[in-house]
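Posted in: Structural Biology > Protein-Ligand Complexes

Title: Requesting predicted complex, NDP in pocket

I'd be grateful if someone could produce the 3D structure tokens for the following input. Sequence and ligand are given below.
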Amino acid sequence: MTATVIDGKAFAALVREKVAGHVARLKDEHGITPGLAVVLVGEDPASQVYVRSKGKQTVEVGMNSYEHKLDADTSEADLLALIDQLNKDPAVHGILVQLPLPKHLDEDLVINSIDPAKDVDGFHISNVGLLGTGQKSMVPCTPLGCLMMLRDHHGSLSGMDAVVIGRSNIVGKPMAQLLLGDSCTVTIAHSRTKDLAEVVRRADIVVAAVGRPEMVPGDWIKPGATVIDVGINRIDKPEGGTRLVGDCHYDSCAAVAGAITPVPGGVGPMTIACLLANTVTAACRANSLTEPEGLTA
Ligand code: NDP
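-- Reply #1 --
Done. Output follows.
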């Protein structure tokens, strides 16, 4: 079998198009321009790239982008004061604090100081609780992107066996909640899981979010299963230089799977697209307007 490639880049473009349509409608019919504030503390090079890309895509879909760049030694009090100001600002519908934060700042405290209704990353403890209890919440962007691709590929996920490898708060756990919400039978695997290969072999859906290059080989995959590879790992090329690979060994998995997301070009592009989707959703909710269909969980 040769797997269908789930093209995250193309799918993300469709999501952005949908978001842009809703933004235009909000502007034309209600005079509302959704706004996303991104807060970056310090000068981590990878974070700077992400923040630039988020700002650019925000503007491209017609929303307002507000970037707040703070020095690496910014005090917790100053950061919390900025978040308080953004929480109160009616022009700001989504707030994202770029992680990781410098060590002297308490990440949990900072994230939980964001108004849950503006928490477009879905990391606030209220949103985690709402998602866990099957209520309307802001959903973390990466798992939301995975869910959208799975729904698009399969239609209904009901009754499917899903294995999520990884139990982080930003990917593994919310991913498992979303799959459970769509009536999958869900197993969460992690570094202490016994006989991971056997666990993965049972799965109709495998979501790998580990951070270990090419850890999942093709012979762990049930023939015809769908493989969603969240991992982004930079490895050395034998001829020099580097390249990006996922947590799954692409060629051997693609030879067995029914469908697979590539790295790069799979889950990655969906993450920012879902951030934009969450921002337009937040803007609709803030104004008691109908939410866009197909952009939430
Ligand atoms: P974390 O490091 O927070 O979590 C990794 C998880 O993998 C942990 O639960 C860990 O288990 C588990 N794990 C580690 N080793 C093994 C093993 N040998 N067998 C089984 N499980 C194992 O990572 P994240 O969830 O933040 O990210 C995972 C990957 O996804 C990374 O490559 C990251 O770059 C990528 N990523 C991609 C995004 C995108 O936009 N595409 C967004 C976010 C992340 P334990 O809990 O027991 O330690």
